[in-house]
Amino acid sequence: MPGRRMLGTPRKLAALACAMALFEPALGGAGTHRRPARKGQHHPERPARRTARDHGTRGIAEEHVHVRRGDTLESLLAAHGVGVAEARPWIAAATAVYDLRRLAPRRGLTLRFDRATHALEAIRYEMDERSLLVLERTAGDIHAERAPLPYFTEVKGVAGRIERGLREDATGAGVPARVVSELADVFGWELDLESDLRPGDEFRVLYENTRQAGEAAAEPGDVIGAEINARGWELTAVFFEDDDGHGAYYRPSGEPLSREFLRYPLEFTEITSEFSPLREHPILRCPRPHLGVDFAAPPGTPVRAVASGTVVEAGWVHQLGRSVRVEHSGG
Predict the structure, then answer these.
(1) Could you tell me if 240 and 265 are in contact, meaning their C-beta atoms sit under 8 angstroms apart?
(2) DSSP class of residue 13?
(3) Are 258 and 306 in contact (CB under 8 A)?
(4) Interacting residues of 213 by C-beta distance below 8 A, sequence separation 6+
(5) How far is CA 157 from CA 47, 131, 208, 225, 312, in A?
(6) Which one in 79, 101, 240, 281 has a CA-CA gap of 20 to 30 Å to 177?
(7) Which domains are delineated in the chain?
(8) Per-residue pLDDT tens for 146-190?
(9) Which residues contact 301 (CB under 8 A, 6 or more apart)?
(10) What are the phi and psi torsion angles at 90 (to 5°)?
């Protein structure tokens, strides 16, 4: 994650580091602990109330906004294409319930737009860890109300021993695939979870689950603590987030584990061609530069940007096929 910094003291990590004790007694076990949702985390929301206004035929689009220090509702709406005149009645309606002129960092804010008309249809803002401000467009005006959060977050811990591989053993122990994938990002610069682990090595992971009220199924969230023991070498990562919502993974000593760039953009089965200033072209059969890395992966494997950036091109590129070009700050 961009904007990482060293912690001033390891004491700030104590709460998360101590939480690892949830699954310390025995391997192969799992524990669950409910806690309030972390600020700034976005979750499934209750269905919007029916309004008298007809939506476009393309439905509703949601924009989840990460609130930072100094943000105002006006500035965030403007950044999403809502002008001052359109924003004014929304802010006026909110004042009867909550003052939105100054937003608290790390609180969740969701904007809903009509896909066809691009008109703002609803705003949801987490006022605190129990309450949600709901603003919705009705036939005549903007309706505002305070509502309970429709979800809760639980912290779950799982531990196990490597027999076949981290992916197989962790998912077999009940760890969601998304969480296993995140472990590869957390530890990616320290060890290769596909090839560096051996039978007998151990893993522990602490992650969030979010549940809708009244529903049994949970949506896996972020990894907040993890530990890998590889042939006696212990590697521990805990997540720390500051008041502005900047988060990263650190060792218990305070040394950062996270880097600004992911090591790989996807979970691959093998590297089929390395970066090379000169290699034999597989089709032309003559020496040519290969200014990239080719990965083999199963169809449907998610491809991620290795760092925050701007998509400047997406489409079919000659010889490359379907491509997405992302520009990162600093080149």
Answers:
(1) no
(2) G
(3) no
(4) 150, 151, 152
(5) 31, 27, 9, 9, 40
(6) 240
(7) 10-38+152-250 (3.10.450.350), 60-148 (3.10.450.350), 270-327 (no CATH)
(8) 988 777 778 899 999 999 888 889 999 999 888 888 888 788 778
(9) 266, 267, 268
(10) -70, -45
CA gap 142, 64 in Å, rounded: 20
* CB half-sphere exposure, 315, CA atoms < 13 A: 4
Instruction: List, for residues 100-147, the tens digit of each pLDDT value.
Output: 766 888 788 899 999 888 899 999 998 887 788 999 998 878 999 998
- Indicate yes or no: pTM above 0.70: no
Rounded CA-CA distance 145/135 in Å is: 7
Give dist(CA 156, CA 282) in Å, integer: 48
**Which of 237, 238, 229, 299 minimizes the C-alpha distance to 266?**
299
Edge-to-edge strand list for the sheet holding 131-137: 60-66, 108-114, 120-126, 131-137, 142-148
